């Protein structure tokens, strides 16, 4: 038969194919090794570092709001005579409304680019901060929280995606974790602002706390205009020469830049080498939600899962309501309550820097699992301390100390694992054509859960006590640890275009290849 090949011809073809694959893989490994060693010798590409730092400063705004609101809420509650439910709505409204920004950010960044989406996020938050600082009433304050929340939603999606698409594989973990670093720094700045301004008249101190965010938002919006566009977005728009120029500045040499460009072009257009100027992310949601392939479905579950457990662990609520928790523990003075949060902020900031420094050395999985195990134990310890304090007429010092240590440990372990790695992982596992809109779906789940936890934390705690709430959060975090162990593969050192293969069924892939060759 004409289509039948003898065994010798098949063996020759198999060996030829195998040798080609080996040469391609050796080339990839050589270039990655050269890039990695160059990064170790020279520290890091300074252009990539500077650009990533600038892009990530957008996340400072969310961190500042989280930190400053934990103290400002004490004064706002008295000023407007709010109930606990109104406080929950005010605090959680920013997180819930950030869902709007998260959902829109994927399509927006595919349409106008990653860089201009970052500018849009900063300007939206600026308007929200201005409204909050000038709020004459509770509804006006809520309106400011809604607008600021939309800006936060844009920022949380686009900053990690931009940084991941710009960064070489060898340093992507560190650079993509910078948004979480800036969130943590922003929280600390918010705590310090609370402490510094708490002595001012209660009528105006909270206005200054919230309104001062206008200035960094404006500076960030202007500064981002000096950054280059994402090379992967440029390739998807068919702007190959511009992408090549960016890659030359963000790679360790010409060879690596050309190799990265070839890999991106191959992934974007199946080998034709260019995208289309008309591309605006069309069909991404359909491919993600309606007719996903098995690997895409696994990627989406992984991204949604890590974002869900990041917020279901209760980290945002712990930060927002720490003063109320310590007030129940027996610390009464507002300045002392705010002072404890500064200690917590210092611990959180220290450990997020440690995690960022070691992400590319140890990988995502070890630090993620270490962080969630530590959080599980810390939240359980916080529950034990709160339980003893709730039932005691005199507050034992050891129980107060246990609560303070447990809270600091919880936020520290969060900063080692879930904090930075959620943004890193979500932004790197989707294919180029689906990255922005896939990440936007995952971040929307993140903000929905954050809002739900923030808006129900006090009400649930009133019913089952702070101790009961912390025990539940500990159990949820333990489930998250199991999910991460079973479902999330390691992505350290992989090019973005190679990560999708980690979610494929290896047996099915091998079987399909054998059938096609036969």
TrEMBL record:
Membrane topology classification: Multi-pass membrane protein
Principal location class: membrane
Segment forming the signal sequence: none
GO cellular component, one term: membrane
Pfam families for the chain: Sugar_tr
Keywords per UniProt: Membrane, Sugar transport, Symport, Transmembrane, Transmembrane helix, Transport
Transmembrane segments: 47-76, 82-104, 116-134, 140-162, 174-192, 204-227, 337-359, 366-391, 397-426, 466-488
Domain Major facilitator superfamily (MFS) profile: 51-492
Localization per record: Membrane
InterPro entries found in the cross-reference section: MFS_dom (IPR020846), MFS_sugar_transport-like (IPR005828), MFS_trans_sf (IPR036259), STP/PLT_plant (IPR045262), Sugar/inositol_transpt (IPR003663), Sugar_transporter_CS (IPR005829)
GO molecular-function terms, A-Z: carbohydrate transmembrane transporter activity; symporter activity
Family, as annotated: Belongs to the major facilitator superfamily. Sugar transporter (TC 2.A.1.1) family.
Name of the protein described by the UniProt record: Major facilitator superfamily (MFS) profile domain-containing protein
Species this chain originates from: Papaver atlanticum
């Amino acid at each position: 038969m004409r289509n039948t090949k003898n065994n010798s011809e098949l063996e020759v073809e198999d060996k030829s194919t195998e040798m080609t694959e080996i040469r391609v893989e050796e080339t990839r490994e050589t270039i990655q090794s050269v890039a990695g060693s160059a990064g170790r010798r020279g520290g890091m590409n300074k252009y990539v570092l500077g650009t990533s730092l600038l892009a990530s400063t957008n996340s400072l705004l969310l961190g500042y709001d989280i930190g400053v609101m934990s103290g400002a809420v004490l004064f706002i509650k008295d000023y407007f005579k709010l109930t606990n439910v109104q406080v929950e709505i005010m605090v959680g409204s920013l997180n819930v409304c950030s869902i709007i920004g998260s959902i829109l950010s994927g399509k927006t960044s595919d349409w106008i680019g990653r860089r201009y989406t970052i500018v849009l996020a900063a300007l939206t938050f600026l308007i929200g901060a201005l409204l909050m600082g000038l709020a004459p009433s509770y509804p006006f304050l809520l309106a400011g929280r809604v607008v600021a929340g939309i800006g936060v939603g844009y920022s949380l999606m686009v900053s990690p995606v931009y940084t991941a698409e710009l960064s070489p594989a060898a340093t992507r973990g560190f650079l993509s974790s910078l948004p979480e670093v800036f969130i943590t720094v922003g929280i600390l700045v918010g705590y310090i602002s609370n402490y510094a301004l708490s002595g001012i008249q209660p009528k105006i101190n909270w206005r200054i706390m919230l309104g001062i965010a206008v200035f960094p938002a404006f500076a960030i919006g202007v500064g981002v205009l000096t950054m280059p566009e994402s090379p992967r977005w440029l390739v998807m728009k068919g702007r190959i020469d511009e992408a090549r120029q960016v890659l030359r500045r963000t790679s360790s040499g010409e060879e690596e830049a050309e190799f990265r460009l070839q890999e991106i072009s191959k992934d974007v257009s199946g080998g034709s080498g260019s995208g289309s100027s008309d591309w605006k992310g069309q069909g991404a949601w359909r491919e993600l939600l309606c007719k996903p392939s098995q690997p895409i479905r696994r990627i989406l579950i992984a991204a949604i899962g890590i974002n869900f457990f990041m917020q279901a662990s209760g980290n945002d609520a712990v930060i927002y309501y720490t003063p109320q928790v310590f007030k129940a523990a027996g610390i009464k003075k507002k300045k002392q309550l705010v002072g404890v949060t500064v200690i917590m902020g210092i611990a959180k900031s220290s450990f997020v820097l440690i995690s960022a420094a070691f992400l590319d050395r140890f990988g995502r999985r070890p630090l993620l699992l270490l962080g969630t195990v530590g959080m599980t134990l810390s939240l359980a310890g916080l529950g034990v301390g709160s339980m003893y304090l709730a039932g005691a007429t005199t507050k034992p010092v050891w129980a107060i100390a246990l609560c303070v240590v447990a809270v600091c440990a919880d936020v520290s372990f969060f900063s080692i694992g879930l904090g930075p790695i959620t943004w890193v992982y979500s932004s790197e596992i989707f294919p180029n054509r689906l990255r922005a809109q896939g990440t936007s779906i995952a971040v929307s789940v993140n903000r929905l859960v954050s809002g739900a936890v923030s808006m129900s934390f006090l009400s649930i705690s009133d019913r089952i006590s702070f101790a009961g709430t912390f025990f539940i959060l500990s159990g949820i975090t333990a489930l998250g640890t199991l999910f991460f162990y079973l479902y999330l593969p390691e992505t350290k050192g992989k090019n973005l275009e190679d990560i999708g293969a980690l979610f494929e069924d290896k047996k099915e892939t091998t079987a399909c290849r054998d059938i096609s060759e036969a």
